[in-house]
Amino acid sequence: MKNIGKITAAWPLVVLLAALMPLAPLYAGGKKEAETRAPDPRAPERLSVLVYITGMVAGSPPYELLAAGAESFAASHSNVSVKIYEAGFNQATWEEQLTDLVASGEYNLVLGSNPSLPEICIKVGSKFPNQKFIITDAQLAGNPQICTYLYNQYEQSLYLGYLAGLITTSTMKNANAVKKIGFIAAQNYPLLDNHIIPGFLEGARRVDPEITLDTRIVGNWFDANKAADLAASMMSSGVDVFASIAGGAAQGLIDTAQKNGAYIVYHNTNEYSKAPGIIVGCGLMEQKKLVEEILADVLAGKIQYGTSKTVGAPEGYLNFIDNDPGYTAYVPQDIQTKFNAFMRDIRAGKISYTLPPL
Ligand code: RBF
């Protein structure tokens, strides 16, 4: 457990203004502004945000983008302060750590990004009924303290799976004759089991219904050696294209794919430059944009607590990076043409599929 907490810089100015506030009525004909304008609790004038990272920032795209979005918003809003707190990989301690942080009373908003957070926030929130929580990458409606935003990861997996299908059935250098793709995941959880994995397989089978998927579980979000071993074993059984949701452990997959010659399609972030010619397709989760919009809505009092929204490519919150040389220079033109057409239809909401319940 490590707290890299960082209070973003603007407080000195806020403190100075706060110190001068009591003088203001003297210059307003003695009329005390504070008495005439009650603060709106839903639209705080000063916003102190706890960014609660369920793991570590480095190596995990959703958390890197969450922290970046919150920090960039704070940098351009002098009344907003942000603390980034890394809760570490021991999930059994997350609730207790969050309880202690909320108990300090320092934060008028807890912001996190993890499918398992709503359950924890329900418990913590029941002890602190004034605490508000906003969680992305999660789904919960009906709790008046919690607002959630779910990325449609079925959709991102569908288009990355489609690309994986085009590649495994191709004559590209590292592609073999076996119609088999692979997925390395850190752990099982409903979003992975019900959206991410089934979406990936469905996307590939839209290219060729005979494609099979080999899924392996690392057991944690950091063991790159284990992921490297899994990847090697999967390659020896015919896997030539991989995807993974494994945080820092994914580095092991990248190393094996580079050494032994396989392809990777990557969720959520631009990783092309990490392994040119190996990582040949990158999806994008617009988490930084979403977080900046969320914080603007918090300041404007527009957040509807108790609700959950699902956002995907047609809404502009998932995408595919198709203008990077890691894609344009390494994926054969005929595959690019087919995939770009599929992606255009995804963005336009023209690809129909059934989104399974979580
Ligand atoms: N994703 C990461 O990139 N890094 C993590 O450390 C991480 N930890 C997670 C822990 C739990 C208990 C769960 C349910 C998910 C975790 N995720 C992590 C997955 C992340 O929230 C998201 O679903 C995936 O990255 C797909 O976008």
First CA to last CA: what distance?
30 Å
Shape by Cα distribution: globular
| DSSP summary: helix tally | 12
SSE pattern: HHEHEHEHEEHEHEHEHEEHEEHH
User: How would you characterize the largest beta sheet?
Assistant: 6 strands, parallel
By DSSP, the count of extended strands is: 12
Report on this model:
By secondary structure, the protein is α/β, with parallel strands linked by helices. The strands form 2 sheets. It has a 6-stranded parallel β-sheet, sandwiched between helices. A 6-stranded mixed β-sheet has the order 7-6-8-9-10-12, sandwiched between helices. Helix 7 links the parallel strand 6 and strand 7. The protein is globular and about 60 Å long. The two termini are 30 Å apart. The N terminus is likely disordered. Bound molecules: riboflavin. The site of riboflavin (RBF) has 18 residues, from helix 3.
Sum this structure up briefly.
39% of the residues lie in helices and 18% in strands. The chain is α/β, with parallel strands linked by helices. The chain binds riboflavin.
Structural topology:
Elements: H1 11-20, H2 33-36, E1 47-53, H3 61-75, E2 80-86, H4 94-103, E3 109-113, H5 117-127, E4 133-136, E5 146-151, H6 153-168, E6 180-185, H7 190-205, E7 212-217, H8 224-236, E8 241-245, H9 250-260, E9 263-266, E10 279-285, H10 287-299, E11 308-311, E12 318-320, H11 325-328, H12 333-347
Parallel strand pairs: 1-2, 1-3, 3-4, 4-5, 5-11, 6-7, 6-8, 8-9, 9-10
Antiparallel strand pairs: 10-12
Helix pairs in contact: 3-10, 4-5, 6-7, 6-12, 8-9
This protein binds riboflavin.
